[in-house]
């Protein structure tokens, strides 16, 4: 794993949360995106090398909606950038980690992603991210 790619924060409303984080981080939201496969709307902010992803559920049965119902707004996951997501997935499986995805899937911000089950990481949901490179 190369670095923390972003920190994902579950929020009830992007309309309310984006302005708050823009003031807090003294920066503008640089991208919003709907990830239909995850039933989520996202907004990204960057300060220095650090990125924050705000996540709002678009469906009551999405993972983010369930998280918000159970835990309320707050940190949802920590994402790490990797060079080769398939190799990293194999390495983690070989070391006993449970992956929530059998194969990487398209995520937000031009990334292929895979999640590591929080039961293996002391309750922290970990996301692996690999930049999609277009040829």
The proportion of residues in beta strands is 35-45%
Helix/strand class:
alpha+beta
Characterize the largest beta sheet: strand count, sense, and whether it forms a barrel.
8 strands, mixed
Overall pLDDT confidence? 95
Distance between the termini: 24 Å
Unreliable segments (pLDDT under 50, ≥5 consecutive)?
Answer: none
User: What is the string of SSEs from the N terminus onward?
Assistant: EHEEEHEHEEE
Please report the total strand number as a whole number. 8
Radius of gyration: 15 Å
* Anisotropy-based shape: globular
Number of helices: 3
Biggest sheet: strand arrangement:
2-3-4-1-5-8-7-6
Helix content: 10-25%
Question: Could you explain the architecture of this structure?
Answer:
The protein is α+β, with helices and mostly antiparallel strands and 135 residues long. The protein is 23% helix and 39% strand. It has three helices and eight strands. The protein has helices at residues 14-25, 63-71, 85-94; strands spanning 3-10, 29-35, 40-47, 50-57, 74-81, 105-106, 111-116, 126-131. A hairpin with a 4-residue loop joins strand 2 and strand 3 (40-47). The mean pLDDT is 95. Residues 3-131 form the VOC domain. Belongs to the methylmalonyl-CoA epimerase family. This is Methylmalonyl-CoA epimerase.
């Amino acid at each position: 794993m190369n670095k923390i790619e972003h920190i994902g924060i579950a929020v009830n409303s992007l309309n309310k949360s984006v302005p708050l984080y823009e003031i807090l981080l003294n920066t503008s939201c640089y991208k919003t995106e709907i990830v239909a496969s995850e039933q989520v709307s996202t907004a990204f902010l960057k300060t220095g090398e650090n990125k924050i992803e705000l996540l709002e559920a678009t469906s009551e049965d999405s993972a983010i909606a369930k998280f918000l119902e159970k835990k309320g707004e707050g940190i949802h996951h920590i994402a790490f950038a990797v060079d080769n997501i398939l190799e990293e997935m194999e390495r983690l499986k070989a070391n006993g980690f449970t992956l929530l995805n059998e194969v990487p899937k398209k995520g937000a911000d031009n990334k292929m992603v895979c999640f590591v089950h929080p039961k293996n990481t002391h309750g922290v949901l970990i996301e692996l991210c690999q930049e999609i490179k277009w040829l």
